[in-house]
Design brief:
It is built from 13 helices and 15 strands. The protein has helices at 2-14, 53-65, 82-95, 98-103, 130-134, 142-155, 171-183, 221-239, 246-259, 272-278, 283-297, 342-345, 371-381; strands spanning 29-31, 48-50, 70-76, 104-114, 117-126, 137-140, 159-165, 194-200, 208-216, 262-263, 280-281, 301-308, 311-320, 323-327, 349-350.
């Protein structure tokens, strides 16, 4: 164990612990390690040296951060009540330290007097493995949390453990970030997972918390990954190798998707996979599929969550020549159903107007995108001239 402690201490010197304090001047960041610096006993490098209660607590925290099942601490020139302080230190790490509260099941200990010092031997029982402890990501800021969530959601993993400041350990805030991350990845949206969030410790005054986010998917990770590949392939076919831009580009994607889509109000059809591969989806699946196609084609698009005739409904907003329009793939595949203003949809649709850009009425009919023009542009966009560019 002597060599092991020496190596760990060298690592700690090279990678000092993060302070964990948020400030308005700090940038978002992610780190995948958590270490607590501590001093080894010069007479016995297999043990850590402590001379105060805070040293004792730090020593216990150090062993936990490394996933050690046993650790030895030598107390030198210790003026406090050794028995009581060791017990208090164990309880503090178990109940108030974020990592201890998350990782540990129990701590047992023994102490004995050895000439000039006390030797305390700690035994740790874990509910999580050393590799799981090492994989905890220390993050600062909502952007870093959302990025970490995107990594997990796009791979259909079942859990994510983060070390965050106490401000970001609010379950409502975290649930909102999970939702943001999920809907920012339309190509991976195969049904919103069940989300469970646990915070460790639940009650404490410190600035840090460990947050465990558990995700339960409707299918296995292997199945979802395979379907994600099918989604990408289907999207590539609909977008084409040389997609059109502007209003023509939106119409091509809109009409192609609507043509092969059978609308279903079934809540179980909120998947891009069912929209693009099996051809049957509800409004959420259809809107996310259109969002994904636009993303792949380099077209600006937003997904809107609101109501249609009083029932929950999803659709899209698209931007043409700096003007926003409503586009609902489930409304039909005719020109009359495409690119509508706020006033044109407001009788049946409701949405948070403060959350999304306004869609003004057209100022004039001159230069409008007629159905005859659409047919001509679709024909031209689907043809490939000799020079390989769109006509």
């Amino acid at each position: 164990m002597k060599r092991r402690i020496a190596v760990l201490l060298l690592a700690l010197c090279l990678f000092p612990a993060l302070s964990g304090c948020d400030s308005l001047l700090e940038r978002d960041y992610r780190s995948v390690s958590r270490h607590i610096s501590q001093t080894s006993d010069t007479e016995d490098t297999s043990a850590l040296r402590a001379e105060s209660y805070s040293d004792l607590v730090n020593s216990v925290q150090f062993f936990v951060s490394m996933g050690e099942t046993e650790g030895v601490v030598h107390l030198y020139q210790y003026s406090g009540d050794v028995e009581q302080d060791v017990e208090d230190a164990c309880q503090e790490v178990l109940e108030q330290d974020p990592l201890g509260a998350w990782a540990l099941e129990d701590i047992t200990w023994t102490s004995s007097r050895i000439v000039s010092y006390y030797e305390c031997v700690f035994t740790f029982t874990y509910r999580h493995t050393a590799s799981e402890i090492a994989s905890i990501q220390s993050v600062v800021g909502s952007t870093a949390i959302r990025d970490a969530l995107c990594d997990v959601l796009s791979d259909y993993d079942s859990s994510l453990v983060l070390q965050v400041s106490s401000y970001y350990a609010q379950k409502e805030l975290l649930l909102g970030l999970v939702q943001e991350a999920y809907y920012s990845l339309p190509g991976y949206a195969q049904g919103y997972p069940d989300v469970s969030i646990s915070v460790y410790p639940q009650e404490a005054t410190g600035t840090q918390r460990i947050v465990e986010i558990s995700l339960t998917w409707s299918d296995s990770q292997e199945t979802l990954r395979t379907r994600a590949e099918a989604i990408a392939s289907a999207a590539a076919t609909l977008v084409g190798t040389d997609p059109a831009q502007g209003e023509v580009g939106y119409w091509l994607l809109y009409s192609r998707l609507a043509d092969g889509l059978s609308y279903s109000a079934d809540s179980g059809r909120a998947s891009v996979y069912t929209a693009l591969v099996t051809g049957r989806a509800n409004s959420e699946g259809a809107a996310l599929a259109f969002q994904y196609l636009c993303d792949q084609a380099g077209l600006t698009c937003l997904t809107v969550q609101g109501t249609l005739d009083g029932s929950p409904h999803w659709w899209n907003l698209v931007e043409v020549d700096d003007v926003w329009h409503h586009a609902d793939v489930t409304a039909g595949d005719s020109q009359d159903d495409f690119l509508r203003s706020d006033s044109q949809v407001s009788e049946r649709y409701t949405w948070n107007t403060e959350q999304y850009p306004a869609c003004p009425d057209p100022e004039t009919e001159e230069g409008s995108f007629s159905e005859e023009d659409a047919d001509m542009d679709v024909e031209g966009a689907n043809s490939t001239p000799d020079d390989g560019t769109l006509s």
